[in-house]
């Protein structure tokens, strides 16, 4: 999947950089990596702490799927990250829907998906991934975030990590495009964080919803059983109720 790598010692955000390349008509498979980001950002415009030692990268994709299926891509990235943590480092992780990777309840990686689409056609998708690898975390994040170095008590080779990740993602991505998401549903749901417990989903457009977390359906929607009914949620941010 990786056709070209653009590497920065420091840039504002690999996400901003890859979107610029998308507008210049670069094709699928461009990967932008930075040692440090000065304006790294996450979902809902949150600041993403991007000190040296972490793995900060963005990838340009041009999937042949309907635009409303693009949020599924972030689930695929989560599965790929979670598989690598398990297979290569023996670390078991959970996925906090839609796409935070947790180790021992603390966030080790985050994913952001941005896209440009017209009618029913996706022009491009910019997928940004941040993994806390060897970076030290600021005091105020220490109780909610974790790095792989902290877990394994040793430095991790970031090149090895990204190579393993891109290889894993490539096969997931091609299988998804030919066979849809259903084949990954069971795996994703087996890793869902806060499963069968009361959670609240906050979203920008709707009221918060609280209920029991049943994991996702085959369109990637989160199934929540509230007092009165079953809700299927397309996007939002989940927390323990
Ligand atoms: C989130 O959890 O909200 C998503 C975090 C995404 C962070 C990555 S780091 C590389 C890329 N560049 C950015 O500015 N953001 C993403």
TrEMBL record:
<keyword id="KW-0804">Transcription</keyword>
<dbReference type="GO" id="GO:0004077">
    <property type="term" value="F:biotin--[biotin carboxyl-carrier protein] ligase activity"/>
</dbReference>
<keyword id="KW-0436">Ligase</keyword>
<protein>
    <recommendedName>
        <fullName>Bifunctional ligase/repressor BirA</fullName>
        <ecNumber>6.3.4.15</ecNumber>
    </recommendedName>
</protein>
<dbReference type="GO" id="GO:0005524">
    <property type="term" value="F:ATP binding"/>
</dbReference>
<keyword id="KW-0238">DNA-binding</keyword>
<keyword id="KW-0092">Biotin</keyword>
<comment type="similarity">
    <text>Belongs to the biotin--protein ligase family.</text>
</comment>
<keyword id="KW-0067">ATP-binding</keyword>
<comment type="function">
    <text>Acts both as a biotin--[acetyl-CoA-carboxylase] ligase and a repressor.</text>
</comment>
<feature type="binding site">
    <location>
        <position position="107"/>
    </location>
    <ligand>
        <name>biotin</name>
    </ligand>
</feature>
<dbReference type="GO" id="GO:0003677">
    <property type="term" value="F:DNA binding"/>
</dbReference>
<keyword id="KW-0678">Repressor</keyword>
<feature type="domain" description="BPL/LPL catalytic">
    <location>
        <begin position="1"/>
        <end position="177"/>
    </location>
</feature>
<feature type="binding site">
    <location>
        <position position="37"/>
    </location>
    <ligand>
        <name>biotin</name>
    </ligand>
</feature>
<dbReference type="GO" id="GO:0005737">
    <property type="term" value="C:cytoplasm"/>
</dbReference>
<keyword id="KW-0805">Transcription regulation</keyword>
<dbReference type="GO" id="GO:0006355">
    <property type="term" value="P:regulation of DNA-templated transcription"/>
</dbReference>
<keyword id="KW-0547">Nucleotide-binding</keyword>
């Amino acid at each position: 999947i990786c056709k070209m790598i653009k590497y920065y010692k420091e840039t504002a955000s690999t996400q901003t950089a890859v979107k610029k390349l998308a507008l210049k008509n670069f094709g699928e498979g461009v990967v932008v990596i930075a040692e440090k980001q000065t304006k790294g950002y996450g979902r809902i415009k949150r600041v993403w702490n991007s000190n040296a030692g972490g793995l900060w990268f963005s990838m340009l994709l041009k999937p042949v799927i309907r635009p409303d299926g693009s949020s599924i891509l972030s689930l695929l990235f989560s599965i790929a990250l979670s598989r690598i943590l398990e297979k290569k480092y023996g670390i078991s992780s959970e996925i906090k829907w839609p796409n935070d990777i947790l180790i021992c309840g603390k966030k080790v990686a985050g994913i952001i998906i941005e896209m440009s689409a017209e009618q029913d056609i996706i022009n491009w998708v910019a997928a940004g991934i941040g993994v806390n690898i060897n970076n030290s975390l600021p005091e105020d994040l220490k109780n909610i975030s974790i790095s792989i170095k902290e877990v394994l008590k040793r430095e991790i080779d970031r090149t090895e990590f990204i190579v393993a990740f891109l290889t894993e993602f490539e096969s997931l991505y091609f299988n998804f495009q030919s066979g849809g998401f259903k084949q990954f549903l069971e795996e994703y749901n087996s890793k869902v964080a806060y499963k069968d417990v009361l959670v609240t989903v906050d979203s920008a457009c709707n009221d918060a919803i609280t209920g029991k977390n049943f994991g996702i359906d085959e369109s990637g929607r989160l199934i929540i059983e509230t007092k009165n009914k079953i809700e299927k949620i397309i996007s939002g941010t989940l927390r323990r109720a």
